[in-house]
Amino acid sequence: MSHPTASPSPELPEFFPRSNPMYQPRPDTFDELIAPDGSVRPHWQAFLKDFSALDEKQRRHAHETAIRLLKDDGVTYLAEKNGQQTDRPWQLDLFPLLISQEEWQQLETGLIQRARLLNHILSDLYGPQQLLKNGALPPAVVFGNHQFLQPCHGVPVAQGTYLHFLAFDVARAPDGKWWVLRDRTEAPTGAGFALENRIIVSRSLPDLFDDTHVQRLSSFFQSFNEHFLEFSQRDDPLAVVLSPGPQNAAYFEHAYLSRYLGYPVVEGSDMTVRDDRLFLKTVDGLKPVDLVLRRIYSDLCDPLELITESSLGIPGLLQSVRAGHVTMANALGSGLVDSEVLLSFLPALCQFFFSEGLHIPSVATWWCGQPKEREYVIENLHRLLIRQVLTPKHGLTHGRLSSFGPDLTNQDKDALTQAITRRSHEYVGREIVSPSTTPFWTEQDTLRPAPMTLRVYVTATKDGYTVMPGGLARVSVRSDPRGHWHEPGDFSKDTWVKGNKALDVQPAIVPPHHTLQLRRGGRDLPSRTADNLFWLGRYAERAEGAIRLLRSLFSRMSGEADLGDDPQTLQRLVSLLVMQEHLSPRRAKRAVAGGGDAVEAELRTILFDPDSPDGLAKIIQNVRRTAELVRHRLSLDTWNILVELGSIPKEWAQTKGQSIDDAIRLLSRMIQHLAALNGMVMENMTRSYAWRFIEMGRRLERVRHLSKLIRHLATRGTPESTGALNLLLELADGSITYRTRYKAEAKLPAVLDLLLADETNPRSVIFQFLTVEAHLTTLPKEENSASLHPAQQITTRICTDIRLADMIQLTEFKKKSKVRANLDHLLKQLDQGVLQISDIVAHTYFSHSMVQRISGPQWLEGIP
To answer: How many angstroms separate the Cα of 606 from the Cα of each of 225, 593, 611?
Structure first.
C-alpha cells in the first residue's frame, strides 16, 4: 500500500474555526477528513458545519444519551480477564465515519465482485475442482488448509449459493485508495453491533443524522431475510440462529439478530437429526428445521463426520445437508476462502472466472509455498507481517500466529527463517498496513486522529449480492491497529453513507407463496430455553425469599424491635440463615457464641461481601447468569430490571460503614426490582409456553421456600409467644391480610390456614399448586391419554390433602413428642411434591427421554 508524504496544513473553512475546542491543530493527520490537496473533503463539509455548532451542553447530552442507551440495551461482549470470561461494555465513538455516495458505489461494486468470485471458488473446489486440474491453484493451498472439509466435497448447495452472508475488512491508505485486508466467509461477526451502533448514534445525534441524509440499514437485513426464507421447500419454514452459546464473545449479537430477524437462537444440543431431517427439540416435540444461520465454525458442526471432539455441533447434520433437507448460511466449508493464502491468487482467479481484474485489490501478500515468493519474504522479514496460516489441525483451535517484522530481533529472524524454510507452505508474508486516520471524539471533548479499518457486510439476494450501506468501523485508540478486534483500546464507529436528500423508503414486497398466516401461541419453544426459563423463575423467587429473610433479620437487630441481645432470638435468627444455606453450621455456632455483634457481622458479610460463597451476591448472580441464557426471550425493560438488580449489591459493596438502616433500604430496593420483574412477567409476556415455564418455576420455588419457613418456625414450641408467627407472616408477606382479617394477635391455626389453605391468597401453598396445575393442563401431553399427567396427579393429591386438613389438628402435639407431627408430615409431602413435579417437568419437556415424546430412530437418545 503506497503512502504519500504528509500534505501541508490545510486551510479549514470558516465554519470549523481553530478556536473551537473540538478541534486540535493536527489536521494533516485526519486522512478521512482532509483530501491530499489539504482541503476538507466535500461530503464532510456540511456535517462539520453542523457539528461545530453544537455547544458543550449539547455534546455532553449526546454522550450521556449514548451511555444510557448502551446500558439500557445491555450491549456487551465477552472478553478474557485474569483467565475468566467477563462482560466488557461495548465501546462506541459517537463521531461517525462519513463516506460519499460516489465513493461508496465504487466500494460496493468492488465488494460485490469479490463476493461473486469467492462463491465461484467455493463452487469449484467443492465441485469439479477445475482450478486444481488446470494449475490455477496449487494443491497445498486447498488440501493443506484444515478449513477444506473433504466430507463436504460433492454436497449439493441450493442455487449454488455457498455464501449467503459475508464480510470484508477494508482499509484506506492515506492516498484515498481502498484495500481489502481480510475476507470473512466462515461466520462473520459484527453486523448486529453495526445495527445497534446505528440506533444509538442516530438517537444521540438525531438532527445531525437527519440532516446528513444517511442511507438506512434495515433494508439490508430485510433483503437477507426474504431471500434466505425462499430456500425452504415449505410454506412455513423454521429458521434458527446456531450459536456456540452465552460463553461466546459475540453472544449479544446472536441474541440481537435472533430478536431482529425473528429466528430462535439455539445451540447444537437443542437439535437432533432423525431420518436425515434436522429437528429442533421443543416442549411440543420435534419440529423440522429448514434454515440455519450458522455462527460457529464449520468443522465444529457435526461430530460424526467432522471434528469428533466438538460438543457444539449436531451429529448427522452434514447428512441432512447432503440430503437437501436443510440450508446452511454459510455453507459448511465456506471458511476455505477465508484463508489469507488465497489473497495472492485472487487477481488471477478473477481473470479466470470474469475476464477482468479485481476492482479493489487485496493487501500485498506472498505465499511462501512458492520459491520466488518465499525468497522475497525471507529477504524482507524486517518490513513484513509474517503469518502462519496453514497450521496443522489440532483439536478445536482456530488461531493464527503472527510475527511483526520490525519488532523481531536477529535471533527471532533466524528462528523464523528456519521455520519458513522447513514448512514453507504454512506461511505468508504481508505488507504492513498503515491505515488512514479518522477523527476520534475523546472523553476530553476533543477530536484527535486514530487509525481506522472498516468491516463491510454483503448478503445474497434474489438479484445477486448487495452491500450493507454502512458497516462496523474500528478505531484503534489505545490498542495496536494490527491486532484483532475487541482489544481493550478498540472503539467502534457508525458508518454513514450519504444518500440522496430525499430517501425513498420502499415497502416490503411479500412474495405470493409467503402469504401472511395469522398465528398465536408460540409453541416452538426449544426445550433448553424452556429449562432455562423454568430455572429463571426459580432463582428469581429464591432471591426474593432470601432478600425478605435478610431484611426481616436486620430489622430485628436494631430499633424498638432490637432483639440482638436475646440468646433465643439470636439462635432462631442464625438457624434461619443455616436453613437457607447462607451460613454453615460451624459459622453459625461461632456467631451465636459471639453474641449480637457477631451475628450482625455475619449478616453484613452475607449482604455486602461479593466474594462470600453463600452470600446474596451469589444468589443474584444465579438470576443474572440464567437470564443471560434466555436473553433473546426477554424484553429490554425486563433485561434492564435484571441488570439493575445485579448492580445494587456491587454499588453498596463499594461504600464503607453501612448502617443497619442502609442495609434495610438496600434490601427493600432489591425487593422492588424483583416485584417489577414479576410485574413484567405477568403483564407483558404473552401466555405462551415460555411464560408458563417461568411461572411454574416461580410457583414451585415459593412452595419450597414457604414450607421450609413453616417447618422451621411453627412445628416446634409455642411460636405465638416467641414472635415466630409474626416473623413468619412478615416473610410470607401476609401480615396486613392477617391483621385485617382477624384484628388480633397471631394464632397458629389461623396463620396456617392463611399460608397453606387460603385459595384467595396469592402467596399460599394451595394457590401455587393450583396455578401449576393450570399451567400443566395447557402444556403438550400424550395424545389420546385418558389419565391425568403424572405431575397433575401430584398437584391434585396435594391440593386435596390441604383442603381436607384440619388446621386445629395440625397444631397439636402427639404424646411425648416435641414436634407437631401432622404438620411436619404435611410439609414433608409438600417438599416431596415439589421435587417430584420438578423432575417430571424436566423429564417430560427438557430431556426428550419420555417414550411418547420421541418418534423415529432411537440411536441419538443419549445426545445431551
So the answer is: 49, 18, 9
- Spatial neighbors of 55 by CB under 8 A, at least 6 apart, are none
Instruction: Give the cell for residue 221.
Output: 437485513
Return contacts of 591-594, CB within 8 angstroms, 24+ apart: 592/567
DSSP secondary structure of 503-525: ---PPP---GGG------S----
| Residue 338 CB-density burial (10 A; 0-12 exposed, 13-18 middle, 19+ buried) | buried
Which residues on adjacent β-strands are paired with residue 440?
448
Beta bridge pairs of residue 492: 92, 474
* 756 DSSP 8-state letter: I
Q: Which residues pair with 495 in a beta bridge?
A: 97
Could you tell me the CA-to-CA distances from 57 to 20, 47, 61 in Å, in that order?
A: 14, 19, 6
pLDDT: which is higher, 372 or 858: 372
Q: Which of 306, 381, 25, 293 is nearest to 155 (CA)?
A: 306
| Per-residue confidence band for 750, with pLDDT thresholds at 50, 70 and 90 | very high
In the structure grid, which three cell numbers stand for residue 312, read together? 457444539
Nearest to 1 by CA among 167, 168, 169, 178: 178
Cis before 532? omega within 30: no
Q: 299: buried, middle or exposed (CB in 10 Å: 19+, 13-18, 0-12)?
A: buried
269 in Cβ contact with 528 (< 8 Å): yes
**Res 579 pLDDT > 70:** yes
Phi, psi of 734 (to 5 degrees): -120, 10
| One-letter amino acid of 375 | E
Angle at 328 between CA 348 and CA 858, to 5 degrees: 140
The string over 53-71, giving b where at least 16 C-beta atoms fall within 10 Å of a residue's C-beta and e elsewhere, is ebeeeebeebeebbeebbe
DSSP 28: G
Angle between helices 636-653 and 660-684 (to 10 degrees): 170
Question: What nine digits make up the cell of 102?
Answer: 460516489
Residue 651: burial class (beta carbons within 10 Å; 0-12, 13-18, 19+): exposed
Vertex 203, ends 450 and 641: CA angle to 5°? 105
pLDDT at 396: 41
Cell of 499: 444518500
Q: Judging by beta carbons within 10 Å of its beta carbon (0-12, 13-18, 19+), is residue 281 exposed, middle or buried?
A: buried
Task: Yes or no: say if 396 and 308 are a contact pair by the CB < 8 Å rule.
Answer: no
Torsion-angle region of residue 682: left (phi > 0), alpha (psi -120 to 50) or beta?
Answer: alpha
Q: Are 481 and 171 in contact (CB under 8 A)?
A: no
Phi, psi of 452 (to 5 degrees): -130, 135
In total, the chain counts a number of residues equal to: 864
Q: At a CB cut-off of 8 Å and minimum separation 6, what does 365 contact?
A: 340, 341, 343, 344, 428, 429, 430, 431
**Model pLDDT for residues 436-449, shown as the tens digit of each residue:** 888 999 888 888 88
- Give per-residue pLDDT as tens, 592-601: 666 666 767 7
**Rounded average pLDDT over 728-749:** 90
Sheet containing strand 265-266, edge to edge, reads 265-266, 239-242, 291-294, 327-329
Grid cell locating 21 = 475546542
Structure-block grid coordinates of residue 213: 441524509
pTM above 0.85, yes or no: no
The burial of 18, by beta-carbon neighbours within 10 Å (0-12 exposed, 13-18 middle, 19 or more buried), is given as exposed
Cell 492515506, located at residue = 174
